[in-house]
Model the fold of this input.
Amino acid sequence: MALPGFGRPPAYYFIWILPRNAFNRICGIVADARLPRILLTPLIRLFSWKFGVDLKEAAQQVSEYSSFNEFFTRKLLPDSRTIDPDPEAVLSPVDGILGESGKINKGRLIQAKGLDYRLADLLKDPERTRHYDGGFFITIYLAPHNYHRIHSMVSGEVREFLYIPGDLWTVSPLGVHHVPGLFARNERLTTYIQTENGECALVKVGATVVGRIRVGYHDQTSNRPGATFQQTILETPFQIERGEEVGLFELGSTVICLFPPGQIELMELKTDQKILFGQAVGRFCKKF
Done:
């Protein structure tokens, strides 16, 4: 319900006045705190009950975690996710809810019904904007109950990544439907993966209550005081296999997968469908 005369829900205005970046750093500190198990275990169980976390998938027992963040970034039991066996399949990198997907049309991506945003604003790289324009994008939202490790959707090597500091609006439906250019406003860390079929990109978007975004190939983390735009070329390319872990969210957010024209064919995807890491979301075209 919107506030009379304002047009947006009350929660939007609460987040608007919140010192979002500082608040999120505090959330990260609290999540990292080593609490006595007599306090932490009931807290984890309450959170899991409230948000519907499937604790049976977790590799550790609830009583074995020493901080809330350790639980939130939990690993799964082996074989709890199935990797599509087709070597040409492009995988979902995360568990989550499918947002929008489709063609990048004249440099614009769909954020939600009635809202779009510019690829140029998302990437901050004119050459790559041209590279991906006319290709496909897939947006996946990670809810609080989801598994929050991020995996590679393809095999290849990471030669370069980009960190763009920014705002930390919520990426829940509240933010998606009411904050114009949300994904291009929030801070993000983009991993570029070079495959046999050309380059594709995995954009990890920060959000409210996200302590940090981490990656496995570098010590770069997000949401740091005084952070600046950083484009990094790795001295030694990082080899990665499809399905291999590439990073994680310390508390949840959104990923956007980008593919240039002619590289892949999208599977039949529906907005708001549940999606699991390892599920095929597309397939490489026979020749790129």
Observations:
- Residues 89-284 form one domain.
- The first strand starts at residue 89 and ends at 91.
- The first helix runs from residue 10 to 17.
